[in-house]
């Protein structure tokens, strides 16, 4: 086969692969609409779906920045938990909703800043360190809660209908994140750095600054998700935020994001992936598939998708 | 004298191509028993390529080899070793974190299998024998190899290679990195191989050393075998002229023969020593409108120096300053603030993000040039990048094509586009025409001349002598980390003069 | 004579860390008036935790030291113990069968993980993440979410009691000692770890080595699972990758194990590390630190260790730079003097 033909095939393969996440989402939606005989697209269910989707999407969109520059942050759950707890404590103490929200944002951004500094200046492997950090942050949250393991903010949250807030948050954050990711120096530098930090450094990109900026973006997403959690459930516990870190990891992969980040990262991976994983989880449970089977399916799909999206040519050596 | 000797190794019409570059062109080489054959040549002459093919490190593109009369086509280094080829390379071939004995018997541990387990005691005994055999007697094989310095670790490698009793020993540019003790061990081994009627291929840059220890000397140039000299014909001047005698097309490089540059100094390098590598106490000045060259052998310290001038290599003494303001260059951002640019020798690893598109790579160095109040629109990107693609005539399927699909020459054009696009005034080039075809080379030289005419400055670091001689106003030669000589274009840059300073 | 001196030195180095830590906490407790630290029941608990954490750290050490991050060890622990228990109950067998079947299942699951990794050629953290989800779910499904309950079945739950727990520990460590130090597998593991490309080029089979490493990991996790089962009387399956938290307690013992490796054997070093950690946990508890703070403190200790090991190269580099600087300044001085 001539070189040109090979190039054409590779380019087309890339086009197909970039459309795959959307196709996957549509297929999943249709499949479950059929399998549940329309229940999955009922008004009630759509409301449930949207709520779950927004949480995951907010964190996932912010996380795209970290993954894009090569920092696999697994501590989203812990960060969310600690931010929520701090905010709730402040809110209860002052009785003010505004204070609570401000504290959540400040704490989330501070945690993000610390993570960024650790990753940038101490050159620690982000993946392993954030796994430890995640449980560390939850543990700190537990300590702060003290004797009361759950904290209720029912008295300060008087808002009944959250739909408006949800929509503003998700649309607003997505737009801002997308513009910065695709049309500004920060986003572009992030992608370039994920592809080859040495080369991006020699092009004048400040590696440390980009790492810190990407953590701050994910911190923003976590802050918004934390606010929504508190407003919705009106309580915080040491388990607030739970396994969102893992959900986000799977979501981003399903959304078409290469795990190694780099120039092929897309902000849409956050939204599409979050939608896909939410519909998948929801659909499977509507079909009365037990939680464990759902997880098996997620596990297999995860490995499968990563396998397909990572066009790794087999090297002689095993990857590490 | 040679007629009675048996042929041990023979290469017939050996060719090796890397893409469009021919590293070996129809080389015929015959090595006899009891012969110590020296291989000498410039960088890129093919001397390491031919020995690595013979040892099994890489396959030839075409041609045949015979070893002891039988066809020789080793698929891996293990094959080559089994056939009787032992090769000591320049790079590190030992593994840290394990013992010296384990390093010597890497991959062959089953030799010491006893009742299912590996007898470390036996391994240590044999290792001691192997070390003693080469004369490295004050070494305890039970120790972790990390306790040894780099030179002594190389000795362990030598013990490893010699333990397999090779019939042809290849010593590839190893002596330069060794201490005197190590060199003596190698010379002794060479004598021993000769006495045992085996053969040695000795590759080195050190002409004196090569002439002293070899029986015959083969000179390679640009992938071709120029001549083989007998010991009686050994004469340094003759060898050097064989190494370089070539025709350089006059209109390929610069037309003029005069050294011109402005009095204004743009970059001042004072007593710079890099933390890593060889560069030591280097000082010079780069002027406006000057093409300054730095040349030397591949490990003379010039590559680290290039990075250091751009601010991307830690400096332990001295400093690099932007002369007009006196500001010190400590990282790429400050360098770029002063309109500097850097093209690395390791194109794929340091200069390009292979998985990114041409557009992304070129924009990567020019965010400030395309953004409008922080926003970068696709339109401004297309304009900026499109201009470079046009001016440099980059052959591609569009600016969104990933750079990894481009040919070497076009990849280099993208790197150039990165810097030219933002109007770089001080460009540092490291081996800019390596792996690039003639057409692109000529285009690059044109760009360099154009930039000089516009009053811009170029620092070109290169291992290709012809290029330096053809293009520079001034040429600094580096050897063992320091500047060993300076030549001016007016004086008539002569290849012989350059080589004198390099070796 | 020199040899016995060396053996004594190595022995002292191996036990000095846990010994010193024990002493420190003993003194601190005494100052505070606490007398039951590190003796009697407390000591039994410390030793038992050492075995449990030690097994987990051993499992992690066979992959992490070679740069492979295995997310699935927690799920392997749960699944192997569940399967071992089910078979033992079905066939109405005794504690030895429980142990052997669990170990067997652990090794098999680990082997499967290794096979998937080598066949797919994907980064290990990705592969093991997916496998962890699958193993967790299988454990959940087989037991219909209820797990295995052996409470009251004292005949089977012996593996957390003395002396059986110590015997188990010694047996496993002995086997691993032989494997890591006296077999081609062990030697290859060291070679691949220090120089992957060089080792593979000399013909060492990396895939086979990786699969064995994963199998050993699975076996060690099964051993830990059996000890845990004997303490709690139940094995509860988890979902949602909660099993990933098993790893947090393994880092510190593994670090210490790597440091002590050159004095005798890495496996024994890991156990010493686990002992140190258990002493620290027990000591902190006895000093009155609330349990919620304990995870915070241990998390921070591990982070500090991480920070050190990933930045120690900077210290080496700094020294190298200093040397080069001195050399250059000397050369310059010589030049100016001339």
TrEMBL record, chain A:
Alphabetized UniProt keyword annotations: Cell membrane, Membrane, Transmembrane, Transmembrane helix
Membrane topology, as annotated: Multi-pass membrane protein
GO MF terms held by the record: transmembrane transporter activity
GO CC entries: plasma membrane
Chief location of this protein within or outside the cell: membrane
Superkingdom of source: Bacteria
Compartments where found: Cell membrane
Residue spans crossing the bilayer: 16-36, 48-67, 97-114, 121-144, 164-183, 210-231, 237-255, 267-284, 296-313
Protein name per UniProt: ABC transporter permease
Species this chain originates from: Lachnotalea glycerini
Automatic annotation (TrEMBL), chain B:
Coiled-coil regions listed in the entry: none
Keyword Transcription: no
Record's keyword annotation contains Translocase: yes
Gene Ontology MF term list: ATP binding; ATP hydrolysis activity
Domain ABC transporter: 9-247, 261-502
Keyword terms: ATP-binding, Cell membrane, Membrane, Nucleotide-binding, Repeat, Sugar transport, Translocase, Transport
A Pfam family matched in the record: ABC_tran
Protein name: Ribose transport system ATP-binding protein
Source organism of the structure: Lachnotalea glycerini
TrEMBL record, chain C:
Membrane topology label: Multi-pass membrane protein
A Gene Ontology term for the protein's cellular component: plasma membrane
Membrane-traversing stretches: 12-33, 45-64, 71-91, 97-119, 126-143, 163-180, 211-232, 244-261, 268-289, 295-316
Main location: membrane
GO MF terms held by the record: transmembrane transporter activity
Pfam families: BPD_transp_2 (PF02653)
Subcellular location: Cell membrane
Organism this protein belongs to: Lachnotalea glycerini
Alphabetical list of InterPro entries matching this protein: ABC_transp_permease (IPR001851)
Name this protein carries in UniProt: Autoinducer 2 import system permease protein LsrD
Keywords on record: Cell inner membrane, Cell membrane, Membrane, Transmembrane, Transmembrane helix, Transport
